[in-house]
Amino acid sequence: MDIVLVPGFWLGASSWDEVTPTLVEAGHRVHPLTLPGLEAVDAPRAGIGLRDHIDAVVAAVDAIDGPVALVGHSGGGAIIHGAIDERPDRVVRSIYVDSAPLGEGGVINDELPVVGDEVPLPAWEVFDDEDLVDLDDDLRAQFRARAIAEPRRVTSDPIHLHDERRYDVPATVIACEFPTEQLRGWLDAGLPFVAELSRMRDVELVDLPTGHWPQFTKPAELGEAIRRAVDRA
């Protein structure tokens, strides 16, 4: 299976380096992406929006012959969902790593501190304690050293969707900072931020207890969780 790996904010393809060996050893072909504006510290970010990131994932899907699994971490979950909306007939499973699909008109996170045309990685104090579980001082230093500022518009552009066949693509949610029991409670309560997920017709919920960046805190376990999800495709 071809697996396209989409990172969350501030990260590029290398953030998957410790996750991919499990998938490669299982015989899968991995395609970790670095999205526009995140190629380097001095890469231009003005004018890059959410649609540019979605289009980059669509281009990666189009470059592959055969079925594709899409994996999106954090904000990357909204991006893969936008790509699925464009290519619902090409994606056989979507995997949301500590994330969920974003519905029509939603934004990923427009509350992050903005500096000009970009959103730098904030101070750790900005994040909730649940985000930072298992992210020790060494991992925090490594993360900050590799972090690239996110293009501002990616965080705040509304997503636009048009093809309801996206709801037919089987999905796996790998829940890290909040357990699946809590996620099921949000779904049962009909909370707005899981409304799009509730419309999907085949959803599997998987627990991987750690903080918001399992590719750093539990990479082998994340690789195995992705492998199992892909194998069910």
Automatic annotation (TrEMBL):
Pfam families in the cross-refs: Abhydrolase_6
GO molecular function, one term: catalytic activity
SUPFAM superfamilies named in the record: alpha/beta-Hydrolases
Signal peptide region: none
InterPro entries xrefs: AB_hydrolase_1 (IPR000073), AB_hydrolase_fold (IPR029058), Sec-Metab_Biosynth_Hydrolase (IPR052897)
Name of the protein: Esterase
Source species, domain of life: Bacteria
Source organism of the structure: Leifsonia poae
Residue span(s) of domain AB hydrolase-1: 3-222
